[in-house]
Write a structure and sequence with these properties.
By secondary structure, this protein is α+β, with helices and mostly antiparallel strands. It contains 13 helices and 23 strands. Strands 5, 7, 8, 10, 11, 14 and 17 form a seven-stranded antiparallel β-sheet that branches. Strands 19-20-21-23-22 form a five-stranded mixed β-sheet.
């Protein structure tokens, strides 16, 4: 399927045609009940769910849009991967440059000419604007019984650096405090948090637009581990195969996503912090209550007949698992371009991605593998990786049991296990002594096997 779905409704219509959508007319409560229905359906590999009559809020709720590999493929298709592969080959195939080589790439350049943004005076999301807003009209979900309140779980948070104007689009959960205020869960190492730090250093609030819905490619781009400074809007446009539609907002420095279902327009308040959480999180336990920045929503934009998109966060596999694997497949041709000695790289969604990754690297001189390990652990969101398995062997990293056997057959525990304490860690990792602090590890398995691994265990278990 083409990736050129321009809004949430186009995706819903596609899923309906493909028999991948169930519409629920019975009343369902966004407080715990809706999330439980979602969890049971995704566990069974079931369809997307359109709840037409939530018991709170003024809008229908759509969940489980990306809860299977098939639905992810329907939403985004193969074209983006083909284009990324061609882009990755470009530095080699165009050198040395010639008119003939450039002419041979004319189809690629034509595709690239379609990428970018296009701003118009109004968009569908401009149909209605409410000020002051009433966020209680949104059927935000409370997913787990110890959650601190209702959360907006699929927010596309657009910020801009007050220093150099670089855009960032991230997905940072929003706990709804009241009709005009939410938390803003800026995590360590994320662009939105960097922009807030810049604004606060200047004594300023940070303008923010939070979009809900819009082109499915925006959801993909918001969670993509792009290098700092690479605009997520560019990736979204690449996935769509067309320019991303934006609309002017005369009262804010940021544009509106023209085809979003909702846009929350406002500011993250300088210096303001408020307890946020707990929140049932990706690792199967609660991230606890901590102080986070406060977002003040000043205006609520909504399109006619708006539909509220949501997801449920919890122990894998959830929707983020299927999106994450697609993203890795999409971006993997670029890894050797950015890191030439890294032949393959894979993070394991079953662990929440940041906890465990594997890499196949070149070992052209002794211990070069550690050079590549440091390179990986220093690259953007990959720097949040807690434990890295690295080998120079021919192994399919997507097959974790095979990867682990391959490494264990080759590693020397006195030489090949590295533990680095007192480092910054993923905000959601609670294994360290405090939030954002902990240790990382690297395990090398290089060269030929040094042991035969037993295939089974027999005898008494040591006491």
């Amino acid at each position: 399927m083409s990736g050129a779905l321009t809004d949430l409704r186009a995706l819903i219509a596609l899923l309906r045609r493909e028999g991948e959508l169930v519409e629920i007319d019975a009343p369902v409560d966004p407080h715990l009940e809706l999330a439980e229905v979602h969890r049971r359906v995704i566990a069974a590999g079931g369809p997307a769910l359109l709840f037409r009559n939530p018991t709170t809020g003024d809008f229908p709720v759509i969940t489980n849009l990306f809860g299977t590999r098939r639905r992810v493929a329907l939403a985004f298709g193969d074209r983006p991967r083909t284009l990324v592969e061609e882009l990755a080959r470009l530095p080699v195939e165009l050198m040395p440059p010639s008119l003939g080589k450039l002419w041979g790439k004319r189809a690629l350049f034509k595709n690239l000419a379609r990428i970018g943004t296009k701003t118009r005076s109004r968009g569908a999301v401009s149909d209605r604007m409410e000020a002051p807003p009433r966020l209680s009209r949104l059927p935000a979900l409370t997913c787990w019984k110890e959650d601190g309140g209702p959360f907006i779980t699929l927010p596309l948070v657009h910020t801009q650096s007050p220093v150099d104007g670089v855009d960032n689009l991230g997905m940072y959960r929003l706990q709804v405090f009241d009709d005009e205020h939410t938390g803003m869960h800026f995590q360590i190492g994320k662009g939105g948090g960097f922009h807030l730090a810049e604004a606060e250093a200047r004594g300023e609030d940070l303008p923010v637009h939070v979009s809900l819905g819009g082109p499915p490619a925006l959801t993909l781009a918001a969670i993509a581990p792009l290098p700092e400074g690479v605009p997520e809007f560019l990736l979204a446009s690449l996935v769509m195969g067309r320019k991303l539609g934006l609309a002017k907002d005369s009262r804010a420095p940021l544009p509106l996503v023209a085809d979003a279902e909702f846009v929350l327009s406002g500011r993250v308040l300088r210096g303001a912090r408020r307890p946020e959480g707990p929140f049932g999180d990706h690792y199967g336990y609660y991230s606890l209550q901590h102080d986070y920045p406060v977002f003040r929503c000043e205006r609520l934009f909504e399109r006619e007949g708006a539909i509220y998109p949501a997801t449920v966060v919890g122990k894998p596999r959830q929707e983020d698992f299927f999106i994450g694997d697609y993203l890795q497949e999409l971006l993997s041709p670029l890894f050797p371009v950015v890191m030439p000695a890294v032949k393959d790289l894979w993070s394991y969604g079953e662990t929440g991605y940041h906890s465990l990754a594997g890499a196949v690297v070149r070992e052209r001189y002794p211990r070069e593998a550690m050079v590549q390990a440091f390179r990986i652990l220093g690259e953007g969101q990959l720097s949040l990786t807690k434990f890295l398995l690295a080998t120079d062997g021919d192994v399919d990293l997507r097959d974790f049991p095979a990867t682990l056997r391959h490494v264990l057959a080759r590693f020397d525990p006195a030489r090949d296990l590295y533990v680095f304490p007192h480092l910054s860690m993923d905000t959601l990792d609670y294994t360290g002594p405090e939030v954002n602090r902990g240790s990382k590890g690297v395990l090398l398995g290089l060269g030929d096997p040094v042991r035969d691994l037993p295939g089974e265990f027999a005898g008494e278990v040591p006491s």
